[in-house]
Amino acid sequence: MTRTMATIGSKWKPIIIYALGERTLRFGQILVRIEIISKKVLTDQLKELEEDGIINRIAYKEIPPRVEYHLTEKGLELLPILNLMTLWNAKYSEQE
């Protein structure tokens, strides 16, 4: 559990993983989906997720530069867990 939380336990990493889901998104598209995150924090979190093998970053040699992100197999395995957490939240949010 400690290693898992060290990998995805920040405030933003699970949200970024959930926002990516099974699709490929550019930086700006992720930023739009997570409106309250700053560009710097998103950049830092994406770098850490890439280092941990959760996401892949693909940089295209174009002008203007284009960078896309998608979940690796390792990252995709987290989606069912995050979906369960979302369902758990919905269940208990309704009771309040």
UniProtKB/TrEMBL annotation:
| Key words, A-Z | DNA-binding, Transcription, Transcription regulation
The UniProt entry, under Pfam families, shows: HxlR
- In this protein, which residues make up the domain named HTH hxlR-type? 1-96
Entry GO MF terms:
DNA binding
Domain of life, per lineage: Bacteria
Key word 4Fe-4S present in the record?
A: no
UniProt name for this protein? Transcriptional regulator, hxlr family protein
What are the top taxonomic ranks of the organism? Bacteria, Pseudomonadati, Bacteroidota, Flavobacteriia, Flavobacteriales
